[in-house]
Design brief:
CATH topology of the largest domain: MetI-like fold
CATH class of the largest domain: Mainly Alpha
Oligomer: single chain
Largest sheet: none
CATH architecture of the largest domain: Orthogonal Bundle
Helix content: over 70%
Number of helices: 12
Order of helices and strands: HHHHHHHHHHHH
CATH superfamily of the largest domain: MetI-like
Number of strands: 0
Number of domains: 2
Structural class: mainly alpha
Length: about 325
C-alpha cells in the first residue's frame, strides 16, 4: 500500500508543475502590460505615471528577466504562499482567495453530497428495475438534469419563487453566525449545481451496477441465501463504485466551472464571484491566482480518488 501511495504522490508533482506552467504562460501572453495596470490602479488609459516607476515595478516583479527566470521566481513565491497582489487594492491574492474560500467550499460540499447520495440511490434502483416504467422515468429525469444548463436552471430558481413572493437572502450570512439563514441561502444554489452532476453520475451508477449484477459472484451470493440488501451493499455497490469515483473526479472540473456561474447568479461572495470580478476589471494577478486555485483543486481531488482506490479494491494495494 505504501508503494501505491508513494507512486501516486510522485505522479501528482509533475501534474501540479504543468498547471503552474500553463497559468504562468497564460498571463504572460495577454496584450496588457501588468506594470501599466499597477501604476494606473487598474485603468489602462492612465498615462500620468513616469517610465521610471513602471521600470521599478517590472524589476520588483522580475518582469525584466527572461521567461525561465520569471518562472523560477514565480514557483519559489508559490512555495512560500505568495501568489501576488491585486492591481486595484494591493491586497494579497492569497488573502482574497482565503476569504472567499468558505463560500465556495460550502457550495461544493453541499452539491457533491446531494448529487452523490441521490445519484447512488436513483442509479441502484434503476439498475435493479431495469426496463421497467420506473427505469424509463428515472432515465428521462436524469437526461433532463444532465442537459439543462446551470445558468438557466439557476435563473428559474430565482424568478419562479419570486412570482409567489419568496426571495432568498440577498446578503451572505456565515454558517456559525446563523446556521438556518445560511442554509436557506445555500440550499437552492447547491441543489441547482447538484442537478447536472446527479444526472450524469446516476447514469454512470446504473451502467456500472448493471455490469456488476451480471457477474458470477453476485449469483453465488444470491445462491447462498444472502438478502438483497447485503448483496447490493457489500458486493455489488462496492465493486461497481470504482468507475463512478473516477467519473466523479472528472466531473469535478464541471462542478467548479458551474460554481462560478452559480455564485454570480445568487450573489455568493465565493472564489467564482472573485474570478468574474477580476475578469471584468482585468485584474490579471487575481485571475492567475483563481485559475491556479481551481487547477490545483482538480489535481488534488484526482489524487485523493486514486488513493481511495487502494482502500476500496484491495487488489490495487499490491501494485
Amino acid at each position: 500500500m505504501l508503494i501505491y501511495v508513494t507512486r501516486r504522490l510522485l505522479l501528482a508533482i509533475p501534474t501540479l508543475f504543468l498547471v503552474i506552467l500553463i497559468v504562468f504562460t497564460a498571463v504572460r501572453v495577454v496584450p496588457t502590460d501588468i506594470a501599466d495596470l499597477l501604476v494606473s490602479g487598474g485603468s489602462t488609459s492612465s498615462t500620468g505615471q513616469s517610465d521610471a516607476v513602471k521600470a521599478a515595478i517590472r524589476k520588483e516583479l522580475h518582469l525584466d528577466q527572461p521567461i525561465p527566470v520569471q518562472l523560477g521566481y514565480y514557483t519559489v513565491n508559490l512555495l512560500k504562499g505568495d501568489i501576488g497582489r491585486s492591481a486595484y487594492d494591493q491586497k494579497p491574492v492569497a488573502k482574497k482567495i482565503y476569504d472567499a474560500l468558505p463560500v465556495t467550499v460550502e457550495v461544493a460540499l453541499l452539491s457533491i453530497t446531494l448529487s452523490t447520495v441521490l445519484a447512488i440511490a436513483i442509479g441502484v434502483m434503476s439498475a435493479l428495475r431495469q426496463d421497467t416504467f420506473y427505469d424509463y422515468g428515472i432515465r428521462l429525469l436524469t437526461i433532463f438534469a444532465f442537459a439543462a444548463p446551470v445558468f438557466w436552471v439557476g435563473t428559474l430558481a430565482i424568478v419562479l419563487p419570486a412570482r409567489w413572493g419568496y426571495f432568498p437572502p440577498l446578503f451572505f450570512v456565515p454558517f456559525l453566525s446563523d446556521p438556518i439563514s445560511n442554509l436557506q441561502q445555500f440550499i437552492v444554489p447547491a441543489t441547482v449545481l447538484a442537478m447536472n452532476l446527479m444526472g450524469s453520475v446516476s447514469r454512470m451508477v446504473r451502467s456500472s451496477m448493471l455490469e456488476v449484477l451480471r457477474q458470477d459472484y453476485i449469483r453465488t451470493a444470491y445462491a447462498k441465501g444472502l438478502q438483497t440488501r447485503v448483496v447490493i451493499t457489500r458486493h455489488a455497490l462496492r465493486n461497481g463504485f470504482i468507475p463512478v469515483l473516477t467519473f466523479l473526479a472528472l466531473q469535478l472540473s464541471n462542478l467548479l466551472g458551474g460554481s462560478v456561474i452559480i455564485e454570480s447568479i445568487f450573489a455568493l461572495p465565493g472564489v467564482g464571484t472573485l474570478t468574474v470580478s477580476a475578469i471584468a476589471t482585468k485584474d490579471y494577478t487575481v485571475i492567475q491566482g483563481c485559475v491556479l486555485f481551481f487547477g490545483c483543486i482538480v489535481v488534488v481531488m484526482n489524487l485523493l480518488v486514486d488513493l481511495s482506490y487502494g482502500f476500496i479494491d484491495p487488489r490495487l494495494r499490491r501494485r
